[in-house]
Specification:
By secondary structure, this protein is an all-alpha fold. It has helices at 2-26, 28-55, 73-79, 82-113, 120-132, 135-145, 152-159, 176-201, 205-213, 218-229, 231-246, 250-256, 267-276, 281-312.
Length: 313
Amino acid sequence: MSTAAVPARRDIRNTRVRRMFWRMWRERSAYLFIAPGVIVFSVFTLAALVFAIYLTFHRWSIIEPAKPYVGLQNYADMVHDERFVQSVLNTLYFTGASVPITMIIGLGLALLLNQPIRGRAVFRTAYYLPVITPFVVSALLWKWLYNGQYGLFNYYLMKGHLIDQPLLWLSDQNLAMPAVVLMTIWSGVGFSMVVYLAGLQAIPESVYESAELDGAGTLRRVWYITIPMLRPTTLFLLVIGIIGSLQTFTQIFVMTSGGPVNKTTTMVYYMYLWAFKYYDMGYASTLAFALFVLLLIFTAVQIRLFRGNEGVS
């Protein structure tokens, strides 16, 4: 019986394979249209990913011909790398400070600009302008504002007798990261505002009218209606904000170069140093995969929160 079953199973497999190839041939025009995208993805994403994994097992220097295989040594070095640990802590500090504040201010602006006030379109445009401003331009502008000699921040603080001498915003170990966080909040508030506005306009007015008839004041309506019904919007902004802040690089590169004393060195900037300053692509790729693990963790949290949100709704 077993010998008779084997040919039958092979016939079934062969039939399925033939059907699959026949369907592919029948839909060959569709495969032809998606072929350019598949080729680009395979060459510039899939192949690059595989090669990056390969690099993590080698001491791969750009300027040296020898590229020895080191096994898991890069990963062991990363675990014991104090500067890497510091970059992780800096990144988490940056994320924990910038993302919630940006979302809170964005929600407040959305609540105000969702009211029928005069000129609200102008205000919406003004608050959104930093979002569409090139990030390098914004970073250079804020670097000028933070300048210790002729920056506007020091000028007005001294004019108001709030400080006695100019502050070295980007050179002080205690002020450098808050200064970068403030710039990031300024550039990201407009995006949070627009997304929250879209969420607010999706809430039915009848819900607010029913609550008002029941005697609920403005604060109660915001707390018990607006915020709960904006939960999917908040989740979206939280996930997007965390992923973006974990990959922050431009403002660090332009404003502080990771200083002072590595106080603003983030994971991506530290990765950049190893790749393009120390020319060790193997260790830089290892750091990249550490960042990938962090992003994977936050993605898993996102999926869990999304499922929980579906269960509540």
